[in-house]
């Protein structure tokens, strides 16, 4: 039996996810961006919510917790480092911990930067990564709370996962991410090809997720901060890749 992932839209540009363990029927919402959207997805699938896995404290990822918990009595798992910022957490987890959903097991990976306590959930058997705002298709989240060094280290942890990992991120930002990436890495053939696919998907009204991590490793400039051509673009040859990562993040912020 396997993990089934149901994808739906929430709020204005959030992705919502239901994670369903086939063996036991347990079902988790990955974050709680909008309770009504999650409840609609549960009705459509016929599943019953048993858990919520929270990645970080921003309102567009936690707003639905109270309503869902009241309706379903579900267990809420979330980052230990942000427990003081998130109401309703039942189980606190951090880097290296394991989370079970029936017979499906997830590794918790710390990815500080977007928020200091941001975590992601990786399911190693089926190779599913639920990255929220730590890693987007062709981008990463804004560095609201962290510093470049730890954020780059967290990104490298994700980059080390298998190439055939399917990534499910928090928002549909891929088109704008592609435009920025091409502006700083215009000769990257893998990026050019990816941008063409993204354009076609969005013109057809289709989402750009999930995406394969291996493709993103070749095309996403934030995963390539240690590539010489990106260091040259910013005049940072020979510098620590964390400095290049910081320059890329600043460049995207101002793009």
UniProtKB/TrEMBL annotation:
Enzyme Commission number, as recorded: 3.1.2.6
Cofactors: Zn(2+)
Domain Metallo-beta-lactamase: 13-171
One of the GO BP terms on file: methylglyoxal catabolic process to D-lactate via S-lactoyl-glutathione
Gene3D superfamilies: Ribonuclease Z/Hydroxyacylglutathione hydrolase-like (3.60.15.10)
Catalysed reaction, written as an equation: an S-(2-hydroxyacyl)glutathione + H2O = a 2-hydroxy carboxylate + glutathione + H(+)
GO molecular function: hydroxyacylglutathione hydrolase activity; metal ion binding
Residues annotated to bind Zn(2+) 2: 60-61, 133, 171
Associated pathway: Secondary metabolite metabolism; methylglyoxal degradation; (R)-lactate from methylglyoxal: step 2/2
Cofactor note: Binds 2 Zn(2+) ions per subunit.
Family: Belongs to the metallo-beta-lactamase superfamily. Glyoxalase II family.
Role summary: Thiolesterase that catalyzes the hydrolysis of S-D-lactoyl-glutathione to form glutathione and D-lactic acid.
Assembly information from the UniProt record: Monomer.
NCBIfam families noted in UniProt: GSH_gloB (TIGR03413)
Protein name: Hydroxyacylglutathione hydrolase
Organism ancestry: Bacteria, Pseudomonadati, Pseudomonadota, Alphaproteobacteria, Hyphomicrobiales
Gene: gloB
